[in-house]
Design brief:
- The chain has helices at about 10-15, 30-40, 45-50, and strands spanning about 1-5, 20-25, 60-65, 65, 80-85.
- It is of the alpha+beta class.
- It has a single domain (about 1-85), classed as Beta-grasp domain (Ubiquitin-like (UB roll), Roll), CATH 3.10.20.30.
- It has a five-stranded mixed sheet with strand order 2-1-5-3-4.
- It starts with a strand and ends in an 8-residue tail after the last strand.
Length: about 90
């Protein structure tokens, strides 16, 4: 099944372009997509997604404005946007 991937910042640089169309087997999950990106686009992609502890994500996978959990099954034609975590604000 085809999954569309949009990325920004370090991940976009590691992947070389955005958006991407990725072909995954039926039943693949968000975790499978992340593993695919690391395996096919190298260590830079993996490091742009996952913290050094190997568990914590540096980006949030989002579909239709909602965060997607790692064990969520993906569907044909779905678009996963990897959003960077943001910090900041004036506190006012």
């Amino acid at each position: 099944m085809k999954i569309n991937v949009k990325s920004f910042a370090h991940l976009r640089l590691a992947l070389g372009q955005s958006p991407l169309a990725i072909d995954l087997p039926e039943g693949a999950t968000t975790a499978d997509l992340i593993a695919y990106l690391g395996n096919h686009y190298g260590e830079a992609a993996h490091k742009a997604i996952v913290m050094e502890d190997g568990k914590t994500l540096k980006v949030t996978p989002v579909n239709e404005g909602k965060a997607v959990v790692l064990d969520a099954p993906l569907k044909e034609g779905m678009t996963i946007v990897f959003m960077s975590h943001l910090a900041g604000g004036s506190g006012r």
